[in-house]
Write a structure and sequence with these properties.
The chain is α+β, with helices and mostly antiparallel strands and about 100 residues long. About 35% of the residues lie in helices and about 25% in strands.
């Protein structure tokens, strides 16, 4: 799978090299913006230049994202977490659907 293929399928996207557990508002603002707009995706494990760095523990990142969204957001956005392998590195796509 190529990164260009993934981001071509998104209306909007943002890259995060890792999940910031201690600063969830840094990425929850993007989730909120995507929900209030046309939707979009956050890609964890990719730096701001679009270079794939990978994640050590995708399962932990998924669980932490679910927890932070439940703790900080109301109403809950409709999201989907999609793991991908790019060149042997694991990344996570957090797909956020537009709200109703």
């Amino acid at each position: 799978m190529e990164l260009k293929t993934l981001i071509a399928e998104c209306t909007a996207y943002d890259f995060k090299v890792m999940l910031e557990d201690k600063r969830p508002k840094s990425w929850l603002k993007s989730v909120s913006a995507f929900t209030n707009g046309l939707g979009g995706s956050l890609f964890f494990g990719i730096d701001n230049d679009g270079i794939v760095k990978g994640l050590d523990d995708v399962q932990h990142v998924c669980e932490a994202i679910s927890s932070k969204i439940r703790d900080y957001m109301d109403p809950l956005p409709e999201v989907e977490m999609i793991p991908h392998d790019i060149d042997g590195l694991h990344i996570l796509q957090l797909k956020v659907n537009a709200g109703h």
